[in-house]
Design a protein that fits this description.
homodimer, mainly alpha
């Protein structure tokens, strides 16, 4: 984290405690501001002020407001790798592995803020919804060999995405009790059967209804 | 709907096509503005401008910004009554009745905008989350005799709330395909088994873990 000493010097020169600290401080300020004001209402000047840097430095690191917004939604590759590995588990363990990797993404400090920002933004504005739409539908389908092999795989992926996003909204964003208060293992145990059925049990419809 | 003729007269005198038209025009403008700018960023002046009325008229009809915000989230009693009736269905039909009444609330023009605004606001700001938190957890539990009778009823209500809110987010807010494109009956058929299991099938945990 960048130190907050000598803000006026930092504002003038853009120098803080090294590039990665500055970059991170801008991202923290940007996530907070985008979440509060929405994409349309957010300004680079306000974000720069909150991060204690010159607006020019934001352009230097990130480019446009659009690029900065995209950067606030980035999930580190090691986190998405864990999701990918879960989707390649043996078919009777894939439900639990998926729920655990997915909720892990919401609990891991390396990704929690990005995921939160992505969902908040996607629900607040159509502009940001594309990314989440792809993750919950197409990308989930494409990453799971089990789903790719099935004619109803896309419906299954969307049902799984619907349940997973709902668990996250209830537990991490709206904080519905007791699902917000239960420990992670208990939530995984409770939700795994429904996810596993969407993965492998017969659906109540013919595949043609996709 | 209020007519948009003579906006300058309307602005000066606050008269439009009758009180209920004016009230509705303010609500439409307020929902749009709260969704775009968030609660903190929203201003009565901007809402009044968009509705073509004097800000004083908003205070006359609704009181404070807080009261106006609450009014944008109101769901008509006939819609909530349908949900209540669904929760009192016979136990083997309650899953389908609940999913149908819940998704109906998102599709009925009388409530669609309020529900959308409530979820958007609840996810964007903690201030608005209380209402949705109550609906998805405590109120769902208290309205379903089937759940009130069980020691694990609150966990079941939260799991059901999690799945239902996720279906709505995927179908109506983020528009994940194919769940956004499927007709209502198909979505009800696909999601009913998981909801029914959360209502009546044994949970993978002892009730004491609530």
């Amino acid at each position: 984290m960048a130190s907050s000493t000598e803000p006026s010097t930092a504002q003038r020169t853009g120098r803080r405690s090294g590039d990665s600290g500055t970059r991170e401080a801008i991202l923290v300020a940007a996530r907070e501001h985008f979440a509060k004001s929405g994409y349309a209402g957010a300004s680079l000047r306000t974000i720069a002020g909150a991060a204690g840097v010159d607006p020019a430095l934001i352009r230097h690191f990130f480019g446009s407001k659009d690029d900065l917004f995209a950067a606030t939604l980035e999930i580190p590759p090691e986190v998405t790798d864990r999701l990918g590995q879960a989707l390649e588990s043996a078919s009777d363990g894939i439900g639990e592995a998926l729920v655990r990797a997915y909720l892990g993404m919401w609990e891991d400090p390396a990704s929690a803020e990005s995921v939160r920002a992505m969902v908040r933004s996607a629900i607040a504005s159509d502009k940001a919804a594309d990314r989440l739409r792809g993750l919950l539908g197409e990308q989930l389908h494409a990453s799971a060999p089990l789903l790719l092999d099935r004619p109803d795989g896309r419906v299954r992926a969307a049902l799984i995405g619907s349940h997973l996003i709902g668990i996250a909204v209830a537990r991490y964003l709206v904080r519905v009790d007791p699902i917000a208060a239960l420990d992670l293992d208990t939530v995984v145990t409770l939700c795994t059967p429904a996810i596993q059925r969407y993965l492998t049990a017969p659906l109540p419809l013919e595949p043609s209804s996709e």
